[in-house]
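Reminder: ligand-aware prediction takes two inputs, not one.
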Amino acid sequence: MNVIAEEKPSLTLTTLPSDDIRQIMWRFADRYELHMLVQSARGVARGPVARLVAAGGRNSHEWTAEKNALLQHYDDSGITAASLEPEQGGYIAGPKNLALALLAFELAWVDAGAATGSLAGNLGLAPIHERGTPEQREKYVSGAAPLKPGENRKQVRAAFALTEPIPFVGVETGMLAGKVRVAEWKNGDEPTLQVEKRGRFITNMGFANVVTAAVDSDDAKIKGSCMVILEEGDPGIWDRGTPTKKLVHQLSSTNDPVFNLKVPASRIVGGYTIKDGMIIPNFSHSEVIEAVFRRTRVTVGLMTSAKLLSAVEPVILYQRRRFRGGQGAPGTPRYELGIQQKEDALHRLVDVWSTGEASASLGFEAARLFDELDPLEKQKDAWLAEKNLTGRAALKEMAKKQAEAMELVKLNSRPVGERNLERAAELEADPLVKYAVLDSLANVLCPACKLWNTGHGANMMREAVSLMGGYGVTEDCPGFLGQKWMDAQLEATYEGPEAVQRLQLSITMTSELFLAQFRQWILEMRSLASERPGTGACALANAMRLWLWTLNHVQAATDADGAKLYHKTRQGVTFPLADALCWLLAARQFILDVVELETKGAENPALADGLAGTVSFFNDLCHVQSARAAGEVGRVCAEIVHGYNRHPAWDEKSCHACYCAEELSSLEGLIPGIDGSARAYSDVSEIGENHPCKAGPCVSFAGLEDFALLRAKLDGCLTGCRLAKDRAAESLTKVMTREALDYPM
Ligand SMILES: Cc1cc2nc3c(=O)[nH]c(=O)nc-3n(C[C@H](O)[C@H](O)[C@H](O)COP(=O)(O)OP(=O)(O)OC[C@H]3O[C@@H](n4cnc5c(N)ncnc54)[C@H](O)[C@@H]3O)c2cc1C
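Here is what comes back for the chain with flavin-adenine dinucleotide:
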């Protein structure tokens, strides 16, 4: 063990976070079935998966026998059945978003291709799981259960086919080239459909025997689009196509398949009705995929979090041993700490770690939220069905529930003594009101975690790789960090790249119901800041206020030419604001998870020894992350608020035009350029009388005084964040690690 003497045992991070700590932070301490799932997924990840990667299994595009053998490991370990209901052959009752998130996290700790391979089966079945008829669920979802001893059936292995060869479906999911026509429809019989679909980049296609495919009607007798279930063995063409020449996730199978098959109309996902001689699918393809991606994107986000957190130990091991070859003897700082003597290397690892924590916190919160939302969504669907409400009528009824949800949020934000408790209890008892509240959050948290965890996560993986020097970009890099960096880019791309998530956020983050809750969160962070100033909650609360102010401002403001700022075509405004929100959400959730650890951890005697040190270290990481988030939000907001105004009178003689004359004279000699050699155009006397600097500041703050004040406050609240970083960095030099990683390299 690499143990270096501790000075203050109670407040020093002694070991890397244990399972007990993670169970509390990610709120599954009392769910033993999930503890077991984590252990068995870890066994597969750090056993057969890691061995295959170490043996060069990622060096081929083909679906090899060795890769195929992983499927059996997934089946044997319970990974495959984790997504199934107990009556379908599964073993976890109730919603499974958190379970699948933990599973993806464990597998991606070693290899996200393996995680994707296992989860793509769920993705293939998800349209049926979410929108399928009971018969479809029974046949296909139950059919995916691993075979029991003595059973003789073909196990369903599914793939999801939405993306098509260019120039058809990609980010724009409506541009379907895949077509469905009526092939045969005898009086009174079930129609037979002809389905033509070409896929691009379809995961699991090297071995899948069932495909859920998105197609559009090419027949006046079929209305709109739908998803259909295709089976290997259906009459016609079932061509798996060529393997994709991926640079990433090579332990999953990806192909460009071609299908031209005849299938019964009962294969339309969710069924259909017949009206006036026309087949009307119960769900369009976009309705199905919306229900699917909403959940599966969260697990993708967590794959990148796992990579970042998995990088911490290998980097520490590498850094500490790096200088042992020279003259330093054991016990000397050079020998024991190696690169860890250098502040920058430590600070960068702190950034990697805090990003990994914040993204994991955000992802697991989103997963738990969907676990809460799932049963409520079923109740909502049943309620609408009972009242026979569809389309506009259903939307109208749900709008009423949203108004009540808003009332509830407002009631709950009043001081305790002033709340109408009776009315609040009445509203809280209505599952549809609760659904509306949580739905508005899920609509933000899901795209936020997919966008930020993977997009910013990929950038931070590059940082992790850089800390390993040349090894970082070799196959021999401990922890497979080079591959993980590249893999993170795929996670940012598939199931909708960043642009898709930003588009969605630009709509959902303006929901009044969400914003009402966001306002409460600002108060929550302010009150936390007074109890726990070391978390950076104060800076975060101010950054949240600044973001909210900016969002309100741009919704009414116009640019220098009078064009609206907040508009769907103005991605230069909406997208950065979406990004900025993600920083806030992730940092906030990290703080809340650490508060949970501090509170609940105290109840666990097994944690008595190291808890205070871990909490103290995590508080410092929270501070680092909150400050970084505040900085990012400040930058984005300032660019948007000021950046669409035209700079006043910019002329050659006033390259320092942003300083008024008085400022220039006071800055003389203080900043480069304003010195004797630059007098030719910085001499204050050369700024003409008509220059706006003479009349007042170059930048007009008229109407923006509040913004300027908030920004100044935000900067002031960064107090102590670098001290927190120094402390966290020092902890990295002292924390105990293993002698070697627990998986092969
Ligand atoms: C290894 C792998 C596995 C995959 N598995 C599956 C699978 O199992 N099933 C499946 O159906 N698909 C799968 N995909 C496809 C994946 O989901 C798509 O590649 C992805 O959604 C993006 O589509 P595209 O590649 O056509 O990008 P494009 O649509 O060409 O977009 C390219 C880029 O253009 C920009 N852009 C596009 N539209 C907009 C916009 N409206 N606003 C702003 N910017 C925009 C964005 O920067 C975007 O990233 C997989 C892909 C890969 C690489």
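Residues 343-386 form the longest helix (44 residues). The pocket of flavin-adenine dinucleotide is lined by residues 120, 160-163, 170-171, 201-203, 246, 249, 254, 490, 493-497, 499, 571 (CB under 6 Å). We will return to this case in the review session.
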